């Protein structure tokens, strides 16, 4: 996530203070602060709707798309906090006269607040099924439009034609246009690159799909991902997957997709050769650096997919020594192990290490450091796998001298929570502990 983009968002939210400050001398400052919170929420939501469009240039300003998804989530949470405080803190001011729609705007604002609150909570409560969340998430734009209506017609100490009114209105229009584009116009507009499914293979729990372009096709770098949609059979909804093949001259693409949910299960069952597909992208900055510094690649389970593209690309580029740790649980189910061993034989700088947890073997920062001769400072580490494993390895390697900026990973999750599951688990544990403590106290003999 780029600091530049975060600064732009912060400045966009703070800019209205320039116009609100002079109003404080003649108006109730508490009510004025409440109105500022409402304005800030609209600005954040307008920006958030725009981020959802995946418009060209967003990655340049805000960072890779995986980080934009995380930013999108937290901006939604921040907007809800601002709206909640705006509702709690009385924003009414004496001496203001609203128009004919002021009363309706007040009621619509209440509906917008509670509708957005429910939908944002549905987004961060990750146990709600994906297809239900996806359907409900589309309604956010409708409640945002209602919030904009509330702003346009509610009683306030400035008019919509004032600089402050025009400023906030611009973000309202940005959000509404972005929503209309995503929900109505974009599905009808041609997008992405047309492909035909060339081959389909089932490798253990993975479905390997090779696509041939109908025309030019997209150009990608090893480690990037793209959105795949297949025409027909209930597979037309876009889903992001890592590109597991290195770039080819004919621009054919390869995806290696793990059966992890409803969509991927349906894709494994129904995808056939000859079907038409659309691929949008590529996205992501999970790409190899130039230079001869040592590299460590860590792929856990399906996290091996971007490193397949990395390994294949070594045939046509020079790099420093590379150590690839392939972390698995079942030695009999290791897709692409033979392919990676063959590439390692062809490319002298690549060493493949299978780490099988069922054999009691664990990948630790200590082992990585030892394999690099005791020094990790000059290495680049690339990781794709479970979050807990990533955090443990990064923390340990940084303590051993690795520069944090050289630990590369993608937060490749369409939905992430805000710690509600952990909070619920902690509250549950505390409740169980309290019950057991009371039971123990009752069973102890009196002295």
TrEMBL record:
Protein name: Ferredoxin reductase family protein
A Pfam cross-reference name: NAD_binding_1
Record-linked Gene3D superfamilies: Nucleotide-binding domain of ferredoxin-NADP reductase (FNR) module, Translation factors
Localisation per UniProt entry: Membrane
Keyword Magnesium: no
Gene source species: Roseibium sediminicola
UniProt KW GTP-binding keyword: no
Lineage, top ranks: Bacteria, Pseudomonadati, Pseudomonadota, Alphaproteobacteria, Hyphomicrobiales
Chief location category: membrane
Domain annotation FAD-binding FR-type: ranges: 190-289
Top-rank lineage group of the source organism: Bacteria
